[in-house]
Amino acid sequence: MFVKSTQDETLIKVIDVNELFDPLHDQVQGQDQSGQEEQSPQAFPKSQLRFPSGEALPKCWVDPNYQLN
Asked: Residue 59's CB: how many other CB atoms inside 10 A?
């Protein structure tokens, strides 16, 4: 699955989508898709990620207390 960084608008390939869906993880492992070479995996904060369309990630993916609000 691909998401977009809000910092520099680059696409990020999420390695484990379960990390993305789990609100208890505040970071996901991914690979920056800029450049022609395969990039090394690194951690990306969910707070700085969006869908490629620019839409925010669902609250249930980023806030462990979303049902309490």
From this structure: 12
Q: What is the pLDDT of residues 13-26, one digit of tens each?
A: 999 999 999 999 99
Report pLDDT digits (tens) over 3-59.
999 999 999 999 999 999 999 999 999 999 988 888 899 999 999 999 999 999 999
Partners of 6 in beta bridges: none
Count of CB atoms situated within 10 Å of the CB of 27: 15
Nearest-5° Cα angle at 32, 30 to 35:
155
In sequence order, the β-bridge partners of residue 1 are none
In sequence order, which residues have a C-beta less than 8 Å from that of residue 41 and are 6 or more positions away?
15, 29, 30, 31
